[in-house]
Amino acid sequence: xxxHRSLDAAIAWIDATAASLDREDVxxxxxxxxxxxxxxxxxxxxxxxxxxxxxxxxxxxxxxxxASSYNPIRLPLIEVAPGDVLPASTDxxxxxxxxxxxxxxxxxxxxxxxxGDNVEQQGAIAAIGMTLVLAGTRVAARHxxxxxxxxxxxxxxxxxxxxxxxxxxxxxxxxxxxSNGWMIRAAAERDGGVIGECIAIDRGKMAIRAALAxxxxxxxxxxxxxxxxxxxxxxxxxxxxxxxxxxxxxxxxGETTGLGTVSGAPVVLLPGAPAxxxxxxxxxxxRAIRRLGGRAAELPCRSREMIxxxxxxxxxxxxxxxxxxxxxxxxxxPLPSFAETGLMAAVGADGFVIVPQGSEGHPQxxxxxxxxxxxx
Amino acid sequence: xxxHRSLDAAIAWIDATAASLDREDVxxxxxxxxxxxxxxxxxxxxxxxxxxxxxxxxxxxxxxxxASSYNPIRLPLIEVAPGDVLPASTDxxxxxxxxxxxxxxxxxxxxxxxxGDNVEQQGAIAAIGMTLVLAGTRVAARHxxxxxxxxxxxxxxxxxxxxxxxxxxxxxxxxxxxSNGWMIRAAAERDGGVIGECIAIDRGKMAIRAALAxxxxxxxxxxxxxxxxxxxxxxxxxxxxxxxxxxxxxxxxGETTGLGTVSGAPVVLLPGAPAxxxxxxxxxxxRAIRRLGGRAAELPCRSREMIxxxxxxxxxxxxxxxxxxxxxxxxxxPLPSFAETGLMAAVGADGFVIVPQGSEGHPQxxxxxxxxxxxx
Lengths: 376, 376
Known about the structure:
Helices cover 19% and strands 28% of the residues of chain A. The first copy, chain A, is α+β, with helices and mostly antiparallel strands. Chain A has 4 domains: 7-21 and 160-292, Molybdenum Cofactor Biosythetic Enzyme, Chain A (3-Layer(aba) Sandwich), CATH 3.40.980; 24-46 and 126-158, Molybdopterin biosynthesis moea protein, domain 2 (Alpha-Beta Complex); 51-120, Molybdopterin biosynthesis moeA protein, domain 3 (Beta Complex), CATH 2.170.190.11; 303-372, MoeA, C-terminal, domain IV (Beta-clip), CATH 2.40.340.10.
């Protein structure tokens, strides 16, 4: 096995290797969560016409001039609701409660109005050609509403990355062999990936090489067999030999992670130990999937500045992920490490701290960035 | 129309009306994003047996006593990978690189080992009966991994709320009539709702009443027709009369929002103006859907303490949603209001500030909570 590379070097390789995929056109109604591949401009003014801004009666302002309760002016009844295009020969709206209708065909106006009163003017929301939504925007409900108001029924978005998951290291009589696969599948879906295949394959080098060769996919994740075992056990690494760029990252958990390419598409070798598998996914595979899909590369977690209530210990020379629990106020307490309690450290924690390679941890009272385990 | 109620009163009504739905069993592999209806305890110790913690050879420690390079001890080769159950009559693992294998059937040990060395002990992750995941947890990839390790293949989760959307106020010749429907549909899906139906219906009282009556749904959203118009235009309100509890909230945008029930299920009347529709959804309908599905009730947005770079103006007596743009550092600048630019205020903004009813806004330099428009 080659020397361990730094976390930063491994991340730089991911960023250089995984770029935004091609675009595809999708119906706007299904576009929530997708990433716009192009800026969208207003094809016409919004609104395209003057519109009523409230419930009332459309009038021509000049016809109401001089109206008062002593001099009511009788006009044809033209009822409008908010959003209605102002009928021809009208330029203002009299609120419902300020006019009387006696015969269902006419109203009496008792107060003068100015042209434009209670009217949403053509172009008030956007002038023609104005940028409505920027390229790279992750589409939310409000974008769908605005783009539909602008007359769009489809948008061009970055394709969702196709993810292939190969599970090569079923342990002998241990945990259900599919636990890593189920976990990584869910994480890849969270990051916008589409799982093309999630299969168990033989742990032998030839089987892995054959499975990698047939890949028509945007990224392949190989789970297990990354360790320093004999050829049979670390088969995943030699199977991508020649294109294996990094094998071993100074990261705990996750130090046997491997990174390479097959036919130009990234391959991430994830360790078989569950916590190592998860973290190698989060920092490398997930980042690649997010980048391929045009999303922000960073961990999809909130983060906050918090204070170490007790010393947080980490090994010098290795970036270490340390699970923490929230205390009172801004305080965080370290929890037993991933090495001790595996995935329980991820499930029982409120968040985690990433202690860089050059640090031995955070002393009590230190301020540091804590990532929150709420939505991620 | 009745008097406007405060935002707090309307939210209190939602919280009293929308409680967590029943539970259902789903396959664990599909459970990401769902809310656990019960705590999950370890059915057995995790791991269930002593396991190899790294690549190496399983040995009985007592058989290696006295081993050194001068006194190598020859043992049968029993190769193990991380996660493998320790074979019978072995209690330690010698790392691969610390033993030599000459004939593929035996190894030579040159260093003593202690029982338990490089072994993940039975129960190290969780003792039998230990709580693995709390009820109410939103299932993420790491929970799926741990629960699968614990042998689970299914979980009991809160049912997803069935949402029915009735669009009653197609404006005359204005924006595409379905824009509010598309927007609200996407927002309801974000909040975990399942859209059972999203249909346009006649704006007349009888049509709305008929549509409401046939509802087999957990919540109904009626879009449009909430304004102070004549019977035809404000048909949604009388159509739920008797069960309409609140009509009019001191909230801008969204002041004509209505809240009621039909057959015990909440009905939210959303104004037809797009920005009002969106905000009435976010604060009331979305909250109800999140609560029905067992999620946290709060707006699903990050928030941060930031500083007003300029005065943020709001009307006394009404809670007002003010769009803002980020400036340098922690500063935020007010943007043109929702009243002026409709949904553009939501799409062009970096976030928003909720100015309470009793306040006229925030003076320059004031510290306040800003909600971020990133994922919501």
